[in-house]
Amino acid sequence: MVMSIDDFISRAIIDNLNTGIVVVDLSYDVMLWNGFMAKCSEIPKEMALGKNLFDIFPYMPKAWLELKFKSVRILKGYSFISWKQRPYLFKFRHNRPITGDIEYMFQDCTFLPILDENAQVTSICIIVQDMTDIAISQKMIDEMLDANKMLQQLSHYDGLTNICNRSYLEKLLEKEFEKAKRDARPLSVAMFDLDHFKRVNDTYGHLAGDEVLKVVAKTVGNHLRQADILGRYGGEEFLIVVPDMPEDELILFCQQIRASVEETTIHHDGIDIRVTLSMGVAPYREDMKDYLQVVHEADIALYQSKKLGRNRVTPYSHVDKIICRE
Fold first, then answer.
1. Which residue among 170, 211, 236, 297 is the active-site one?
2. How much is the pTM?
């Protein structure tokens, strides 16, 4: 049989496409196997034609693929699978030099019904597109986004205690301040630091002091609600942002935190260490201009706690007069 010029051109195009084209009959025997498939599978056309697809590739998900073929036959429409759903149908090696842990060619596959003159499905065409470059690019983008997210998180949190650092804490507090001002909702700030913390460092060393800070941060964090924000304000000084809690409940809440820290034993290098904290509490008021004023008043109340003997909680409302730091 002499091949027409149209058939010759069609075959030449199909064989030289940078896309895989396979046609199988309804028994899944291969009827067409183009150059891309021969090259990537290392199976010549003459060895593939007439062979059953599942015999050539026994690793293929036969039950799943048969359902795909059945759907195409019944609906007489195309079906598509993306590399994001299933990385590959054919285990073809890729030729990309930089791929990380990508072993096989990523593929988009389209399944098309081939109809006869009576609109009956006689065979199915599988079109295989190499998506490895796109998959690698997407993987690199995802990894970069994950790295940026991690860097952003690292920039927000204190490396020792894993709670908010001062700059991020102040950003969150400013947002809560604006929310309280806008919605007329309660907001309070509790500032505390550890009593005689320098003595801990001088007696047991700075590694012991670091362990104390970590344990105290974790102990305090265990008492907080989801809406509360704990941050390290500097050194052994911490800040808790407490939205939507009435002042009488707030004082009890802070007393529970103080007592919990006092009852906690920190174990370090065979040594048991106990610490206490002093705390000052200040609520938001409508006449306040910014969040710094709430922090300032909590700081004044904290200073009063220390002046009265430490290991106590002092509300700003109990401070008799403005106390300046000596």
1. 236
2. 0.58
